[in-house]
Amino acid sequence: MHPTNAKQNDSSKNNFYKNHVYLIFFCFWILLLHLGGIYLFTRGFLLTRFVLDNHSECSKPPLWDNDNNNNVYNIQYDYPWQNTVATRFRQKDQKNQSYIFNSDGCWYPKIFKKAVIIIIDALRFDFAIPHLNKPIQNPESHYYLNKLPIFNQLLTTQPSNSLLFQYVADPPTTTLQRLKALTTGTLPTFIDAGSNFAGYAIDEDNLIDQFKNLGMKIAFMGDDTWVSLFPNQFDQNMTHPFPSFNVWDLHTVDDGILNLLGPTLKIGNDNKVSDSYDSSNSSQWDILIAHFLGVDHCGHRYGPDHPAMAEKLGQMDDMIQDVIRDIDDNTVIFIMGDHGMDSKGDHGGDSDEELESTLFMYSKKWLTHDTTNILSRIYQKLDATESHGSKSFTKKFGTWRSIPQIDLVPTLALLLGIPIPFNNLGSVIPEVFLSYSEDDDLNINKQLMNLLDVTRLNVKQVYQYIIEYSLQQPSTELSKDAIHVLRNMFDHAESKYNLLKNSSDLLLIDDLEDLIVLYLSFLKNTLFICRRLWAQFDLPLIISGISILILSCLCIGLHITRNKKNSITFDNQITVIYALVGGSFGAVFSLGFIKFIGPLTIGFSFSTFDFTIFGASFGSMIAFIIHYIISNSFPILPKKFPFISFDTFMSIFFLIIHSCLFASNSFTVFEDRITVFLLQTFGLFTFFEAFKIKNKELQLKLQFFTFMYLLATRIAAYSTICREEQMPYCTSTFYISPTSTVSSPLILIILTTMTVFIPFIICRLLKLSESYNGVAPLWIEFGLRGGLILSAAYWIMDNLDSNSTSSIIVNSDETKFNTMDIIFNQSWRWFKNFIVRLAFGLSTIVGTVAWSTSPLCLELKMIDIEPNKTLNDRSSQLAENSTKSSGKAIEILGYKNAFGASYFVFLTIIYLLLFITQKPMGGIMLSIALCQLMCLLEIIDAKRDAYELNIEKKLLSKEDEIYVSNASSSSNSYTNNFQHKSTKFLDVVILSLLSSLYFFSTGHQATLSSIQWSVGFIGIEELNYFISPSLVTLNTLSSQILFSLAVPLLTFWNITPKSDYPLFQELTRSILMYIFYNGIVTTSSVFWAAFFKRHLMVWKIFAPRFMLGGINLLTTDLVICGLSIGFGCWKIMKEITKYFEIIYK
Fold it and tell me: In which pathway does it act (predicted)?
């Protein structure tokens, strides 16, 4: 080779590598933008908290030596209450002594033996309070006012037996999260990281568990959410759950409870059965829980201001009167709402109407001794501190006491003599702890001293939780500064308490009140700090995340348009450099801003890391936009508006439909059906459009593959997993029945058929372009087919194993396994796991190594040729050193589809890996997805060929016109020669919609409950913390991985290796258009989730869909950036440039 040519070749190769590397860097920059935007939005929207597994014990109250750094319990402490389990435990010197819970109580003397807890769902505060002094011009305009007169009647006639509070919940105001708060005393969030990750049941310490552990019997009736949260805690003979999802049904649940409530109350009445009371009697209860849903459902259906609401509240008023009549003197009643409702009757957000509910307490014996209004002075002093962000009274409807919802937990626990749950953050309600005995005199000092000790006990418990949380989570959201502040407050209050107790002087009322205020202030400040961390939407973070996502879509769109307009100046390298410089400047600026100005302006939850991400992201995008503006000139108005084809119009229409459906919870729920509709619309339009093609062979090809595409869409639509909100308009077909996870024999037969059908189809497809050469026959016939057969065999054996296990369990009482049975079962399971591991090995090792070694599907063949015969109609190419004069030539088979065939073989390796992780129906659907992808590629190729034929006819008919001369110019060369091969936006839209379709068809929905956790044990017997999550991830995201990996095929399919083809430019366009579409869809789901953060279904529908969108987008970026461009495209383009000695620009 001539030295000059060799030098040029080296330079060209360097440019090739540089272009490819910077394409990877550009996609990686997009990945970082998406990651930063989703991270910031998630930080502000998804509320997280780590769940501690600690549980409070009856004999061990949270009292320890404050001077001991190990925080051990101080058994020398002078415990204030004598007749408790904790006191007896400390007085005994015996080891391993156990104490039985009795009438004395655990940490505090038991005041009540029984409790009736009535939840009236969505009982807003203004529903319960009297509006006697408010003039009502039109009584029918407020149907919810003064419909619960029983509360005001009892407050007026029995003030020492009745208490009414404004009951303030924490967002999210959904029933499930509120019930967690009412039983644990914590601030439940959408994600409670910890031991209960995989289920709905509450595993952390809670009131129900404490009741159960101490032998108290719990009767339950109402909302079945309780049974999901506490599946084995209620007495089986007194558990009556009712379905809660049908919000149109106002009466079924309430009427069912009312039929049970009266008889149950009479059975447990001590006044009637006190002489024959037997704790072993299954009909007697200690705790009765009734959860009514009629008010909530009425709000959802009609809104609060409707005659049906007046009727429903009247029914609740009658029920409350009956309950009060039937209880005995040793029972306390709690009547409450779990949340409120807005003006439309919805809830889920954080508006005042949604947060403000009601708590009413009643007992036939004394409940409060505040005859001298001593608490008013304490509350005034507490509110004067202004350090906890909440007031003790509300002035909205007069003057009423206002308490956080979680204050119920420590109050109820101590009144019934059980330990306060370990994770509780609530404060005791002072009104009921001024004394613990009805016989005590009303000495103010004695009342305050009891309240002080109770409050201190509560503080010790909360402080223990905070310290334990920070110890178990060193990187906790609870900053060192926050812990330091709380520790100082605690130590200050403790030192004051010790001085007061050791003082020989007479205790002054003011001193006692001030000390109580110190302890209450600690509780309020702790709750305030934790609430800021765990249970509030952070609007600045939400807006920041959405802004980054929107701007990232804008940057991608600008890069695509620049790519299309000017291929000569298109350069990923310059773009990456501008983004890197801008991002670095933004990060440095944000760090400097935080250091010098930040403390005055930045909120508590906007950390340095958050602000650095925001600054770097915005800096890089602003730099990119500046570069775009500098390198492009824009006329104020275009001289001629571009013609928009129907394909372009359809793609924009599909994008708008897919993005806007998240504005409706109903459309979001039925996204799977909308996706099918859009895909069928494209198929029908393409089928009828084929009639316009004059070439019969091309017309039949397009119609055939379009018909197969439509058939595949209908088959995919058949496989469904129904989500709860789709009922009764959906029937699950993924398993043999909606209540089973076993596949039917027919599905297993079809799965086995796919092991033969799929390799055959791939073989026929590659033979169309004579590309069934090289590594393709070896891999398709043996590697792929063998992997599919092994996977199908595994699922058949797994199905048989499940059936045999069932029969064994049924007959376990009659037969015992002998040694041969045990050996056979172990061998069976070992062989089952062995064959699936072998399948994984074929995919991850054999297939990857074989393809990496020889990825091209090309073959050289010596052929005879006639001197005057051309090969223009063949999908092959003559080698450059062939000589026609000799009558012999070397033909390169597979030349026409050199890129596409090689990349498709690479795709089948990943397909096999994903196929193995799917359940039988999922494997079938993934195979259908691969077939539909083949159909789509041939449809796109046929449309390109039709376009090329049309262009050739125009050139022939206008060869004497200026049209031909202009076609030779460099600026229009690309347009005329390669426009028909350029990827259309509609192509990537359909590819993305197919990704969505097969996500649903493989047995998934945008719900956590649809995750197929059992696939985490494919090939293994026990949980593996790397393999199991990997398998579940591959199973869940299989369609996203498959179709994201297929994006380069839109550029590669049936493209011949020519040096003048702008391959990098077209590859970049295809990839960016696909990411652009997915970015728009994800940004839309993020925006609407934030917009509907107060919606009833935000945590059930909108938040899971945003999470799915974010995961899909990041998966797309990772697959394209790492697996597709970084490995597949790199290997193929490198080998082809080496094989043909051509360099792509």
Answer: Glycolipid biosynthesis; glycosylphosphatidylinositol-anchor biosynthesis
